[in-house]
Write a structure and sequence with these properties.
Elements lengths: L15 H17 L7 E4 L3 H12 L6 E4 L2 H9 L3 E2 L2 H4 L4 E4 L3 E2 L5 E2 L6 H9 L4 E6 L11 E5 L4 H8 L2 E3 L31 E5 L6 H9 L4 E4 L1 E2 L6 E5 L11 E5 L5
Helix pairs in contact: 1-2
């Protein structure tokens, strides 16, 4: 079921953002190649996953039962004719595929930039195989802020003060897309970014050198629903597109092992 260690797609040379989009597409297509008829598939959220859905549709697979981690992913999945169900109705997933904001050499991830981090982590944990797809610039030497947080609205100011170095995030559709400080009005934050389940989204802006310790501290803070640090034990493997040039001009996709056995 696993793909080749390196997968090449012949593409014309590109640069800048177009090249990054090409890498995202290559990683998504490599992941789509793993999926088989009848699988129960968890679908993440984000720009790389947006390439995954048409890649799955091109394979003309039958009997897929999909679980989406956000309304945007659900709408896009339904538009392509796939069956979308609630996780509780599907149960254990055969595979989940999602992107990441950062990937470090130890296999730690920062995820949740789109605000669906809690659902993404639930789906990752519910899958036998969790595959992360990224373009090469997401592979970093060390994790750095921001780390997304989902926090309860009740006592949000107190929660953010307890965590420290944290700000609420603003919805770009609102009047101001700057981050909102914890001392700002929380009584009517109509322009705060919300999770798919209605909680507030914040960013932790402090040091991230010790990811395990930070993850434990954030998890232990009352009011923090979930954080965007994903430990290596959640990940089966990571597909990184575009990291090494190929002589044939195609896009190489490196497979990096995680700590989760399928």
């Amino acid at each position: 079921m696993a793909p080749d260690r390196a997968i090449a797609r012949q593409q014309p040379p590109l640069s800048g953002s177009s090249l990054v989009e090409q890498y995202k597409r290559a990683a998504a297509e490599a992941a789509a190649a793993i999926v088989r008829d009848g699988m129960r598939v968890g679908l993440g959220t984000g720009s790389t996953v947006a390439y995954l859905l048409p890649a799955l549709a091109e394979r003309n697979l039958s009997g897929l039962r999909c679980v989406a981690t956000s309304p945007a992913t659900e709408a896009a999945t339904l538009a392509l004719g796939f069956r979308v169900e609630e996780l509780d109705a599907v149960g254990e997933l055969d595979i989940a595929i999602d992107g990441a904001d950062q990937v470090d050499p130890r296999g730690w991830l920062v995820k949740g930039g789109g605000g669906a981090l809690t659902r993404e982590k639930i789906v990752a944990a519910a899958s036998r195989l969790f595959v992360v797809i990224v373009s090469a610039e997401k592979a970093v030497a060390a994790l750095s802020p921001p780390v997304p947080l989902e926090v309860l609205r009740f006592g949000a100011r107190r929660t953010l003060a307890e965590v420290g170095d944290t700000r609420l995030r603003r919805d770009p559709a609102g009047p101001d897309d700057d981050l909102k400080g914890p001392d700002d009005d929380l009584e009517s934050p109509d322009d705060d970014l919300r999770s798919p389940d209605g909680n507030l989204i914040a960013d932790y802006l402090g040091p991230v050198e010790d990811a395990a310790s930070l993850a434990a501290r954030l998890s232990a803070t009352p009011g923090v629903v979930e954080h965007g640090l994903f430990e290596p034990e959640l990940v089966s493997y990571i597909l990184i597109a575009g990291g090494a040039p190929r002589r044939d001009g195609g896009v190489g996709v490196e497979r990096r092992e995680g700590g989760k056995s399928g």
